[in-house]
Amino acid sequence: MNLRAYLKLRRQMVDGALQRWLPAENEFPPEIHRAMRYSLFAGGKRLRPILALAGAETVGGKAVDALPLACSLEMIHTYSLIHDDLPAMDDDDLRRGQPTSHKVFGEGLAVLAGDALLTEAFYLLTRTDLMTGVSPRRRLRAIRLVARAAGSLGMIGGQAMDILAEGQKIEGHLLEYIHSHKTGALIAASVAAGAIIGGASEREFKTLRSYGEKLGLAFQVIDDLLDIRGEPRKLGKSTGKDRSRGKATYPAFFGITDSRRQAEVLVEEALLHLRLFPGQANPLREIAKYILKRTN
Amino acid sequence: MNLRAYLKLRRQMVDGALQRWLPAENEFPPEIHRAMRYSLFAGGKRLRPILALAGAETVGGKAVDALPLACSLEMIHTYSLIHDDLPAMDDDDLRRGQPTSHKVFGEGLAVLAGDALLTEAFYLLTRTDLMTGVSPRRRLRAIRLVARAAGSLGMIGGQAMDILAEGQKIEGHLLEYIHSHKTGALIAASVAAGAIIGGASEREFKTLRSYGEKLGLAFQVIDDLLDIRGEPRKLGKSTGKDRSRGKATYPAFFGITDSRRQAEVLVEEALLHLRLFPGQANPLREIAKYILKRTN
């Protein structure tokens, strides 16, 4: 498999669906729909959607059935970035190479655009004209999984601790909590909910969720490293901000070499979980290896 | 029926369920769960939950089946108040007689507490151990209805226009758009989604939705009037803010007497819709009349 070509095709599939399913830019009030689309179509990697599609296919389901889920995950991820960039949170001016939402639309509309993307994500997950091949019971379970991962016991919990830990001396277990929640939870839920939509058995579901948890944590550790060593031009955001804000990061705690090694171990562990799926999990394998090589 | 006693009992039923179903205050991270509970238990009227329960009962369903829906509506309403009170939006210091969330917890945590309440609302709606008497298909439809009403084509659309219209000269139809969306949409969805959970026929559903639309608009017109004529002590918030901020309100556009008359007509129209339900709709009738008399 050529990973680059695979990722590109999947990104196009997700982008096309997002274009179709999101309220159009001229829907009233246009200001809010412009703001929603501005951040959603700023050129994200679509990692979470692609993981959801691959999760469904790994257990023998159809990617197309997981497409609404895939889109809703990207909407939730994007809302979290918009709110995270607000002056009251990380106060960032640049995201994916463009001015952040509040810089373009003002803070009030940026808060609302985030709220709207989160809400619209759940609307999309309940549209009866989509996912017709998936039983209502499975769909409810997938929504529940996503909601838990995105909520105060998942992503939001991680973000809250991320803010509260700024400039503080923290313990290693708290650092892992922050990373596995603020980023890991939604990444794990992407694979796991995709598996549910694809018709996974309990064993398959748990295995893929474990894969996602390792992958999600590795992803955030690499993110920390990119904030130190990455190129702002490729990343589309400024670097060195974690350090200047006194953020709780892996490199700050373990050093660069050790953090890199930990990310590698996490990816190895993620790959071990995939032994349950000989052939079908190849995309998930390639994605795990790519996490270590990414430059943006 | 003694409306006061009825409302009190229903409030207790909703408050008890919220206490049970919301993450406990000591769940990690406690800061976010404290912030969520601080705003949720600040003494709201629980109008939306009570309407949802009454909507279910009006069509012959059980209140207990609609209790998760009822709680989720209050969580969505509360999140919208937290975000609405932020400095970037209406910049309010006082809500329900207490300092607003960002005054107590800081802006970052207030944004996150709102996000968490919205997310937790959808989690609650998908819990399989609750609403066992309701088919997954009906539950998906109720969630969809709530998500649409709370999103950019509903409540958030209304809030966006509310901000954008500040200090502007606007047309009457835009004023109605703002009011029917920022407040009306979620109130209408409360009754309508309650009816869905209660097993409504299409005709019953549409009738109750129309009732809710009229009621919701009337509620916001009275809100505008209370901002001019109400007592801050009873309201639990400062008054006169609409005028000082140049808000698009009914009294500013139509005058006080005409606005009051319009609210009365809206309530009369709401009551007309209830003719479809001779006896069972008595709570909805009483609530509609109470809207005109409320002082908080």
Mean pLDDT reading of chain A: 95
Sheet with most strands: strand arrangement of chain A: 1-2
The count of β-strands of chain A is 2
Q: How many domains of chain A? A: 1
Structural class of chain A: mainly alpha
Give the DSSP E fraction of chain A (strand runs of 2 or more residues): under 5%
Which pair has the most extensive contact? A-B, 54 and 54 residues
How far is it from the N-terminal to the C-terminal residue of chain A, by CA? 22 Å
Tally of DSSP helical segments of chain A: 15
What does this structure look like?
The structure is a homodimer of 296-residue chains. Chain A has 296 residues and is mostly helical. Chain A has a single domain (3-293), classed as Farnesyl Diphosphate Synthase (Orthogonal Bundle), CATH 1.10.600. Helix content of chain A is 70%, strand content 1%. In chain A, strand 1 (94-95) and strand 2 form a beta hairpin. The interface between A and B is large, with 54 and 54 residues.
Write the layout of secondary structure elements.
The structure is a homodimer of 296-residue chains.
Chain A: H1 3-21, H2 30-40, H3 47-58, H4 67-84, E1 94-95, E2 98-99, H5 101-105, H6 107-125, H7 136-150, H8 155-165, H9 172-197, H10 202-229, H11 232-235, H12 241-245, H13 250-254, H14 256-273, H15 282-293
Antiparallel strand pairs in A: 1-2
Helix pairs in contact in A: 1-4, 2-6, 3-4, 3-9, 3-15, 4-6, 4-9, 7-9, 8-9, 9-10, 10-14, 14-15
